[in-house]
Amino acid sequence: MAEPASRPVALTGIKPSGSPTLGNYLGAIRPALALALARDYRPFYFIADYHALTTIHDGDELRELTYEIAATWLACGLDPQDGVLYRQSDVPEIFEIAWILSCFAPKGLLNRAHAYKAVVDANEQAGRAPDDGVSAGLFNYPVLMAADILSFEAAVVPVGLDQKQHVEIARDVADAVNAAYGPVLRPPQPLLEKAAETIPGTDGRKMSKSYDNTLPIFAEPEDLTRRVKRIVTDSRRPEDPKDPESDTLFRLYRLVAPPDATEALRARYESGGVGYGEVKEDLAVLLNDLLVEPRQRYAALMADRSEIDGVLESGAERARAVASGVLRRLRRAAGIGR
Ligand code: ATP
Ligand code: MG
Fold this sequence. Notes:
- By secondary structure, the chain is an alpha/beta fold.
- The chain has 2 domains: 9-199 and 305-334, Rossmann fold (3-Layer(aba) Sandwich); 218-296, Tyrosyl-Transfer RNA Synthetase, CATH 1.10.240.10.
- Helices cover 54% and strands 7% of the residues.
- The chain has helices at residues 22-38, 49-52, 59-75, 93-102, 107-111, 114-125, 136-139, 141-150, 164-181, 221-229, 248-256, 259-271, 276-290, 292-303, 306-334, and strands spanning 9-14, 42-47, 84-87, 154-158, 189-191.
- Strand 1, helix 1 (22-38) and strand 2 form a beta-alpha-beta unit.
- It is globular and about 75 Å long.
- Magnesium ion is lined by residues 162, 208.
């Protein structure tokens, strides 16, 4: 397919740091695929395997999780003819660009990055040294993420609220580079879908592979149902009026139920007359129905990996074509090489 040069890039990445979750699906995959359908952007999707290396130190596990994330994108409907799906590690240009960017990223800015600050805060609360367990890789993560984005001249990055600040850091770093060399990099914009900003996990905190609170989308249906039943609620009885907005079950329900069912449930919450047990049953059915087709496709892709391998190989080639152009420009500007 001929690529109109004017179509700006939309870029989405997921770390293979655990099995894909409903938070990844509703917060990143579904909005990114919806955006691709509109055809206003050229979609780039990547599996951030070198990012996952900050937490996964078992080679077999990382390789397997990388396949899982690739299969997830394809099973959820990614069109590999239109979009470019690639493994971050297959594009070495990103890492050379990351070094250049690190020479422009103020350390003080990285000190304030959410992912790093969250670890420092947890350490301080537990009475440990602030940097306990923090690798240089974790600290530099926003620089590598800036390289992920800027290497492909991404105009927009659809993300959940948890990643908004990291996209803003990429923007700041691009501005700093452009201030030195003129307009060599394209500063990106985060793209947030209001309804899916923060998908709650089973404990009510942000659903995250690194907390044990996820609904893994490709778990067996019975397992998913079991996990839905473990979602923490308050102790209100069925007849009590309840606040839908502060209830994890309702917040998940409205993301997957038709609008009229959501409004009907909202009314029953507010007037009293619905028990959390009933909502859990309904939510589990909705989720399992939504996932019937993706699960079949996912199982087939994981059983024979050759389709994934082929897509990733072609993706790497197409991704490198873009990143190598950006790297060339950047090296020339910086006075690296002849
Ligand atoms: P980790 O705990 O290892 O950080 P994660 O589940 O947060 O894993 P990421 O790979 O960091 O997953 O994020 C991939 C994408 O999914 C990002 O765009 C992120 O904003 C989105 N995302 C992840 N969790 C949520 C969530 N709970 N709500 C909304 N979006 C989310
Ligand atoms: Mg995350």
